[in-house]
Fold:
Amino acid sequence: MSNVEAEVADFQADYHRLRGEIAKVIVGQETIVEGVVTGLVVGGHILLEGVPGLGKTRLVRALAQAVHLKFARIQFTPDLMPADVVGTTMIIADNEGGKQFEFQKGPIFANIILADEVNRATPKTQSAMLEAMQEASVTVGKQTHDLSSPFLVLATQNPLEMEGTYPLPEAQLDRFLFKLKVTFPSRDALHTILDRTTGYTAEDVVPVLDAERIVRMRRLALDVPIARHVQDYAIRLVEATHCDHPDAPDITKKFVRYGSSPRGAQSLIFAGKVQALIDGRFNVSVDDLKRVARPALRHRLILNFEGEAEGVSSDDIIEDILTKVRATA
Amino acid sequence: MTTGEHNIQRVVDRLGRRLQYQAALSWALRGTLAACLIMGFITLGYRLWWFTELTVEYAAWAGGMLILLATALGILKRENRIALASRIDQANSLHDRLATAIELLQRDENHSDIEQAQIRDAVKHLTQANVAIAAPWTWPREIGWVIAAIALLFGINQIRVSAPSPLPPHQLTVALSPKLTTTTAEATPALTPKRGTTAEEVIEEDAESQLAANDAERDALTEGDKAALDVLNQLNLALSELAKSPETVDPREITNTANAVDEAIEQLAGNPARQAQEEMFEEKLAQLAKAMEKTAPKALRNPTLERHVQELAKVLERRDYEAAAEKLEALMELFSKLPKREQERLAKMFESLGERFKSQLQKDLDKLRNKRDRLRKKEQEQGRLSKRDRSRLNRTEKQLDRLERQQEERQEPHQKQLDRLSKDMQDLANKMRRQQQKQERGQKKQNDGPQQKKNRLNKRSAKELAEMLRRMGKRRKQRRAGQKLKMKMADMKELLQRRRRSMKSGRKRLQELAKGRKAKRDIQNKQQSMNQKNNPGEDSGLLLRRRQEGRQSWTRRNNDDDTGAGRTRGQMLSGKQTDLEAKTLEDFVDGKEGKGTSTREILYGAAKQGTRVRGYGKVHIDYSMRASRQMEDEKIPAGYREYVERYFRLIRTR
Structure:
């Protein structure tokens, strides 16, 4: 076995170990866990959407414990200010009795950030995260501070209780790799959850990966080759989300106001590469792209009034696009 | 490149070949379908006298070429290797391993470790690649169409249309022709405005004499024509009775007679197809005459000969064929007296005219005959033919035989006649030439015997042509007589119908008149009773006196030659012009008994028509879209826009 084959095998093994650790705390939700781990590997931020009590925050905490990274949680509220997130310059007394301004880092200076109920904060505070999410750096005053790698934002939002919330602007939504919808667990999963959480003992999550390993895994993932026709498929998928594109299916033309940006295609390819490695392959396939298309594109489609009135969801449109767009041009 | 990498390409190429074969078959079937359709059309034309057998032969060759071309086109269609590899990947769940490997192999650059690993992975999974699954063998969908087209072609090939046999001259028209000359002449006034009366008179006089004449002619007629003649007699009788006493004729009888006349007219019209053929031939002959008239001055250069030919052309153009036959005979008489050069010119003219009106089939036949004669002559000269010439002779004879049969079976009669005419004209020209040669030789030998023989030959050819023209003239006369009879019968029928209509309208007028008198009597009685009621003391004698006075004054006015026209007026139903209230007429409309529409139902119906019900969802979409469009067009702060959008979100259907 050559080096690359061994590396891929290690990647698979590490991935499964990580999943195993998370599975100690989170029951079911395999798709969500897979999505979150994919985001961790390729450095893509994840938006988790689901009603309260489904374990979103717990999942993020479990992940932070399993990867042995610095974790910070920010509870977003309407009165949260940008300085509360990124940090602020304060007057600090030194040992000699003098006083000087010193930048105090905010909670964003961590590896894994849990932005809980991100849509409760004002747009001003939400925008404070824009630079951090895209550039992995924070600018305060005239000084730019780099964030440590890996840097991953896991934001949660509640689809109910729309009163007093500030929906995330399109620009910010576009910065998330995936939007994962956390669904209600099955009956068996609920049994397991109750068994685990209502007893005295609880299983501890053991760190299995460190930052260095995650960075190596990311490099390997980005090296995975992709054939031209597979890449072309990703592009055609994105094009099909645009209502003004001639090849767009009818459902897009009828219900979509704005389609996915090129970041959507990038997300598809990044996630496809991770999927290929998880599967033990050395190339991205069309099937990989199909598997990640829903979480990668659903938050990038903006429906028109007609679509909203008809109750059409982004997932329905993506589903239709996947059936209409052929694998080969 | 390693063996494994070669193997990947070999597998992909195998799929490419498989797809090429399938495409070739599919295209070949498409070509076959097109060829079948073309062949079907050509065969149909061939069966229905449009195309010759040679055309069918060429079409068959073209069809074959089409199939070959289509097959070649199918073979030339090739997909690129990556697309083929992708197809194998999809069919065998290889997750684009082969396609990625092929693409990496096609790149010239050095492969990274992971790319090399990918190629190795593809080679490892090559055992799972099954080409048959990627391109399973299926019957092309065109096969059904091809089978249908072949069946259609077979069906078309089974069509047998027999040529209409030349019919003998119409016996009825011959039998009636002497009688028709008088009948037609007398029926002519019937076409004038006073046709009804005149025709009646003519018919009355003619009916009995015609019946007597018909008895003698009946025996010469066919059964069908006898029936037609009976109808004619019946019609004559009916008309004569009608002319004498129209009230005794039953209208139903007139209707029946009219129907029978219709049938008789149909029968007398004869075979329309044959008539059309004859007319077409006559048209061609007229064209020939025109051509003759045009070419004669240039071709002949002899005023006497030219005059004869021009006269022949004119009578031919007039379609006076009997005169044409006489002219032709006279021309032939003149021919023997002409000098050699002029004889040659006349012969040439006839030959070129004959050639011009020859059909394609006849031309083909002549070509083949010449070829055959040449080969036979060669055989006679050399004793035997080479193998190649022998096969050519056999083939020519076969083709000739087939074309002759085709000419016999399928050629249209008018074209046959035209070919025959053309052949006669060319024969005549040949014979003229031979006669000249013999004349020359005879002059040398000072021998008169052959000269007489030549004249005989010449006269015989001319006689054949003249006979044909006479036959045509006779047939034309018969046809025209038949048409006249048909017109005459149609006139009679129209007369009957008019008579019937007038009888009907007369009866109606009588009924109306009777009704009017009764109504007048009723009014008078009523008035009388009313007067008695109003003036009980006044006796009926006074009334009578007043009425007489009134009548006398009216008579006085009439005697003064004063009708009152222009000065008096009738009853003004609309009242005086200035009196608005009087501008009305009282009228009563009786209601109909039965169940009518109630007021409630009317109101309900109107309400139903006047209102529309539309789903809230659709209305909501319309309104919200209108609002959205408006917001896009105008500058509205984002905050307000959000409020509007939220409002529509809140009121949407759930």
